């Protein structure tokens, strides 16, 4: 399986020949650099202070890297729908996906109060540090939250501008834009369902799945696959198969992220461990754990995982982890991830994509879910 680390790759030259998913990611890194340079220059023309404090931080954050999974999934959709030849529109769509991801992460960190992202201070934390260093007036946290919201908004503006330009230049622009418009609405809906569930103390498994689907699965895999396929003029049958494959893979990705959020190593994830538990974010893992605790009569585990405790100390978080392991929730989620990954590969095979593309999709699903194709019984 090929790796996609956080280091920015060197440009790979012309992109009008046969591309693999890794080639596409490298080419998108190069295109992303060009787009960010152009946007930063425009921001300086608008206002130097805004460019330094906001646009500069957006470009730095995006350049920090990431998995670039959405770009690679867009390539899979494009190839599965028969895409070949000039990949310029695909690359620019990939850049737009990376920018909208930056928007989502910056806003998410503000809403969750997360101090770290990609192993570095989150944007709002960095802005609070700037406030203190400059000895500005007022609470640093309030200023930083407001400024970070603007930074996320700017990333979304850049993404929308780029996607609109790409759609206007494509014969399949209307379908591309419809997918993009749907994705943006789903992201906002999912984020609201997330914060609403926390505020309301909800615990249902169905609610957790709805949040995971809207907030992550759709814009991580399903919509990128459909965006790529739209650029190749995909028919309805191919799009349906890709959407089904993407929803399953996206859910597997989110469930893996839930496990890492509760039990992961911060040195590997780049995020604090246990934040989801500390804030009692309604994840599928938490919902399953609570359901199993109640079904087995494990009142201690049910109390630890329930919505009653407000201030969650390190000790409380450890009790929650122990409850999730004791009830068997971890195992249930692991099994569900494996099932979703296998189902995703079966749906993708239904597109009729050639074996090489299926193998690359399987590698991506493995990277997203942590489940090797051999474990699913669906190795391409």
UniProtKB/TrEMBL annotation:
Q: Name one GO molecular function term.
A: transferase activity
InterPro entries noted in UniProt: Isoprenoid_synthase_dom_sf, Polyprenyl_synt, Polyprenyl_synt_CS
What domain of life is recorded for the organism? Bacteria
Task: Write one Pfam family the protein is assigned to.
Answer: polyprenyl_synt
Metal-binding found in the keyword field: yes
What EC number(s) does the entry state? 2.5.1.-
Cofactor entry: Mg(2+)
- Which keywords are on file for this protein? Isoprene biosynthesis, Magnesium, Metal-binding, Transferase
Which family does the similarity line name?
A: Belongs to the FPP/GGPP synthase family.
What is the official name of this protein in its record?
A: Polyprenyl synthetase family protein
Source organism of this protein record: Streptomyces pratens
Q: What is the lineage of its organism?
A: Bacteria, Bacillati, Actinomycetota, Actinomycetes, Kitasatosporales
